[in-house]
């Protein structure tokens, strides 16, 4: 369902062309593939995408994935579409939504850079916060909402 809702990865849009794309039959197989990928020293990151609230996605499964990623040092992101917030072993939990694009500096009527609303609602060792996120020239930029805390701790995570 995740592929039907959001489509497949577009490799030319990624900074590296070295990509392994795995389509799993169900959440249990997807979580297994993610955990095996995190343990593989040849991969630089693992991104998994699941739809809804599958039974296999429980606290134990997310904790196993988080521990495996920490042990191997391989970053791992689990993207959930159409799901509800529930218990998770993830170290950081974000809600990402689209936001109005930034204004175009050359033409106010033209669309500017794409933007997202990034809400860190749970993290170990970091207070929650909300940022505007933009992407330009292969870098992501976090901009704090007015009156929000400093970004020093979170910026080092996005580098």
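Q: What amino acid sequence fits the structure above?
A:
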């Amino acid at each position: 369902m995740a592929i039907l809702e959001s489509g497949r990865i577009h490799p030319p849009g990624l900074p590296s062309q070295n990509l392994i794309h795995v389509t799993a039959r169900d959440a249990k197989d997807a979580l297994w593939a993610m955990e095996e990928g995190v343990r593989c020293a040849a991969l630089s990151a693992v991104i998994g995408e699941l739809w809804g609230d599958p039974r296999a996605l429980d606290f134990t499964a997310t904790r196993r994935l988080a521990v495996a990623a920490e042990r191997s040092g391989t970053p791992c992101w689990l993207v959930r579409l159409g799901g509800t917030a529930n218990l998770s072993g993830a170290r950081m939990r974000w809600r990402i939504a689209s936001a109005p694009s930034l204004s175009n500096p050359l033409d106010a009527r033209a669309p500017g850079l794409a933007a997202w609303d990034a809400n860190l609602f749970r993290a170990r060792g970091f207070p929650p916060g909300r940022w505007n996120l933009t992407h330009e020239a292969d870098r992501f930029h976090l901009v704090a909402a007015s009156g929000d805390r400093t970004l020093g701790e979170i910026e080092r995570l996005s580098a």
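Q: And what stands out in the fold?
A: The radius of gyration is 17 Å.
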